[in-house]
Amino acid sequence: AKETDSRIGKLSHAAQQIGEVVKLITAIAEQTNLLALNATIEAARAGEAGRGFAVVASEVKSLASQTAKATDEISSHIAGMQGATAESVAAIKEIGATIGQISSISTSIASAVEQQGAATQEIARSVQTVAQGTQTAATDIGQVNRGAAETGSASEEVLNSAKTLSSESTRLRAELDRFMANIRAA
């Protein structure tokens, strides 16, 4: 997600640079249009001798107008690309946050499994102690009951964590599908 975020940032920067070039081209087209207008005026003042020059000035003005239209269209596309880039950055940040939550849930599950393993080992030790003698049987049975309660509690934690992980996974899938749809739409 961080690498994709970096790449989208570079794409956004490149789009901004293209936007600056488009502004320069627009300024040149406007200046060319003014020059063509001045040339048309001067050709009209020259009368018959300036007729050929007037045709050239008219063509230059037409090219300047076409350039202005093209740069407007490019600017529109760049604005759309920058908007899509911003949406992508936001979606990637959401995905990163969701991945962080899933990681936290996974850590909780691992901890619960570790607790369950420890509780299971405690139960096994308690059973061995019961086998060694009837005098300590009552005490050992109490420990087994405590271990069983811990195991049940740990199992509930694992179940709850698994449900949460499943829910987060479904949400992440939906966000990923939405992100991919936005990317395809862009």
Oligomer: single chain
- Sheet with the most strands, sense and barrel status: none
Strand content bin:
under 5%
Q: Could you state the order of secondary-structure elements as H and E? A: HHH
Descriptive labels:
186 residues; mainly alpha; 3 helices
Topology record:
Layout: H1 2-46, H2 51-132, H3 137-185
Task: Provide structural commentary.
This protein has 186 residues and is mainly alpha-helical. It starts with a helix and ends with a helix. α1 packs antiparallel against α2 (51-132) and α2 runs antiparallel to α3. 95% of the residues lie in helices and 0% in strands. It contains 3 helices and no strands. It has one domain (2-185): Up-down Bundle (Substrate Binding Domain Of Dnak, Chain:A, Domain 2), CATH 1.20.1270. The mean pLDDT is 79. The longest helix has 82 residues, at 51-132.
Q: How would you summarize this macromolecular structure in one to three sentences?
A:
This protein has three helices and no strands.
